[in-house]
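User: I'm preparing a small set of examples for a lab meeting where we compare how different chains pack in three dimensions. I only have the primary sequence for this one, and I'd like the structure in token form so I can line it up with the others. Please keep the answer compact; I'll paste it straight into my notes.
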Amino acid sequence: MMYFLGVVKESPAVTAPAPAPSVELGKQRLKEYAPDQYGQVADLDSPRVGEREGDTTYTWEYVEQKTPGSVKVRTVTIALKPDGSFSGLSMGK
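Assistant: Understood. Below is the structure token output for the 93-residue chain.
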């Protein structure tokens, strides 16, 4: 058994940082903010994940048909703040 002598001070509450946004949340935001591109994305479950100015970015490729028989591969990027809220949308060329 241990005994402590003296004054016990309460330590301030320790709070964990908010969890980083996930691919699932990125997909939800993509569907919300770029529904046309969402339906054209080749692989929704495997975006390129990066970071820009403290935000998490998710970049997907999709195929855009320019003319019959002519397509172009483009990108769409969703940026989410650390708390998971929407930060930005970028359409690649």
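A couple of notes for your slides: The chain has a mean pLDDT of 82. Helices lie at 23-33, 35-38.

User: Perfect, thanks.
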